[in-house]
């Protein structure tokens, strides 16, 4: 292959950054994987086959220029690699940490299909941007020529923050309204530090603030202002609240003390990591220490909960899931990490009741079997009669996913149209809602999804909002001229 730095996948094996030993990492909330050193990053990037149809890019929601920045990395041109990576993503180092690459880019890598093991794209992406931060290559936000118009962004999660950045670069004044005391949404309070250390998120937030984006924290639309108030104050509004309403289990005893929601549990843990005083840790209601913990669910949120419980010093941690390992929605890498750290998985099992009145004491469950595929193509779980069993539990965490809150009622906006699932209805050509000048993006439109899709939606909605604001400004000028 001569001097070609690429196509080394035959002679160079797939390799990931070293993981800390399970017995060490299970006692703290630091990230479990070390970063590549430069030689290893270049080596792994050189495995890329530079294929004619890059399935890694087409299966990335952001359509990142993956083969191109892999080649630049292999050639030692890291700053150029970073700039190309940053061209399509506002948070490449965050996606490199938390994207399910095994289901997206790496899972569709051509050399993975050939049996040589995928290029470790996520780890290289993380390395590139971490290096850029370290070397000072991450440039401040430079606002464009002032447009004279302001925008309200409701929600400081991935979709809202991405749109805020691009709208500021376009020259608009941007105000972000968020219900929490720190921006970031689930990046800050939902995802544990062992997957995403919080200083990685906060440095992104600081960059946005330095770019003169105004954050209004502890601000609830409907309490501190109605949606109509924000419409009158700003030229356009973006709803990017995400979906926060937990899906509840319908079973006897579900209201017993000690049966808690996943997001409440994870938020308390992340607050403690920031050094906040957490009353629910002081009274033990959201703390796993010295308890038998059962987490119900099979997605990434459930994996976050079981691994958090291990770090909090639980006596035992079990994950109860109604399907088998092959049919779970969460990342297989996360399951492996959890097993290494001491989590026990109870596959093909579902809760039927919770025991205990003053405090939960156990989960009564039933074995399941997989029947015919449902509308999504996944085999539907069915109870196996007579197979009931009980797991001891002092803390039960419900991690069954999230649904939209009732935004029309919460926002005092009865004219805001929603779908039968409660997500905000938009015109998909413009991403505008039923209200003029009010747009929506992210999970509140598509339902609970991935961070990378939130970033994609935030990027896409910016173009529509910018076009709307330009047309609005032009119409205003015509009115003045006519007058």
From TrEMBL:
Q: What is this protein called?
A: Glutamate synthase (NADPH/NADH) small chain
Q: Which residues form the Dihydroprymidine dehydrogenase domain?
A: 25-136
Q: Give the UniProt keywords, A-Z.
A: 4Fe-4S, Iron, Iron-sulfur, Metal-binding, NADP, Oxidoreductase
UniProt domain FAD/NAD(P)-binding: residue ranges:
150-453
Q: Enzyme group, top EC level? A: oxidoreductase
Q: Which cofactor does it need?
A: [4Fe-4S] cluster
Which InterPro entries does this chain map to? DPD_II, FAD/NAD-bd_sf, FAD/NAD-binding_dom, GltD-like, Helical_ferredxn
């Amino acid at each position: 292959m001569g001097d070609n730095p690429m196509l080394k996948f035959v002679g160079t094996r797939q390799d990931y950054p070293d993981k800390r030993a399970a017995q060490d990492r299970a006692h703290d909330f630091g990230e479990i994987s070390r970063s590549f050193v430069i030689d290893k990053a270049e080596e792994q990037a050189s495995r890329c086959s530079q294929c004619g149809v890059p399935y890694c890019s087409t299966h990335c929601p952001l359509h990142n220029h993956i083969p191109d920045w892999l080649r630049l990395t292999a050639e030692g041109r890291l700053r150029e690699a970073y700039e190309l990576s940053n061209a399509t993503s506002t948070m490449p180092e965050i996606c490199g940490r938390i994207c399910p690459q095994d289901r997206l880019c790496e899972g569709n890598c051509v050399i993975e299909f050939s049996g040589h093991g995928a290029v470790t794209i996520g780890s290289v992406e993380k390395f590139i941007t971490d290096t850029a931060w370290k070397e000072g290559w991450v440039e401040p936000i430079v606002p464009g020529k002032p447009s004279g118009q302001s925008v309200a962004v409701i929600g400081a999660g991935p979709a809202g923050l991405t749109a805020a950045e691009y709208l500021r670069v376009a020259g608009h004044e941007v105000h972000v309204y968020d219900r929490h005391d720190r921006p970031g949404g689930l990046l800050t309070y939902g995802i544990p530090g062992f997957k995403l250390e919080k200083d990685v998120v906060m440095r992104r937030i600081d960059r946005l603030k330095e770019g003169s984006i105004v954050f209004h924290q502890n601000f609830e639309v409907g309490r501190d202002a109605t949606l109509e108030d924000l419409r009158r104050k700003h030229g356009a509004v973006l709803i990017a609240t995400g979906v926060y309403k937990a899906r509840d289990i319908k079973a006897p005893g579900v209201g017993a003390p000690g049966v808690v929601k996943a997001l409440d549990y994870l938020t308390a843990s992340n607050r403690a990591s920031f050094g906040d005083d957490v009353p629910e840790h002081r009274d033990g209601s959201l703390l796993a220490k010295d308890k038998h913990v059962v987490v119900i669910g099979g997605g990434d949120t459930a994996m976050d909960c079981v691994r958090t419980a291990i770090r909090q010093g639980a006596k035992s941690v079990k994950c109860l899931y109604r399907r088998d390992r092959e049919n779970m929605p969460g990342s297989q890498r996360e399951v492996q990490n959890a097993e290494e750290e001491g989590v026990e998985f109870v596959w093909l099992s579902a809760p039927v009741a919770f025991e205990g009145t003053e405090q939960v004491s156990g989960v009564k469950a039933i074995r399941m079997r997989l029947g015919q595929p449902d509308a999504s193509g996944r085999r539907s779980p069915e109870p196996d009669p007579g197979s009931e069993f009980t797991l001891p539990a002092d803390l039960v965490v419900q991690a069954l996913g999230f649904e939209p809150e009732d935004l029309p009622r919460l926002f005092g906006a009865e004219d805001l149209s929603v779908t039968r699932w409660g997500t905000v209805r938009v015109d998909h050509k413009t991403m505008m809602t039923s209200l003029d000048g009010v747009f929506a993006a992210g999970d509140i439109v598509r339902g609970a999804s991935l961070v990378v899709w939130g970033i994609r939606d935030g990027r896409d909605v910016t173009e529509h909002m910018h076009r709307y604001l330009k047309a609005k400004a032009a119409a205003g000028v015509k009115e003045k001229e006519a007058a």
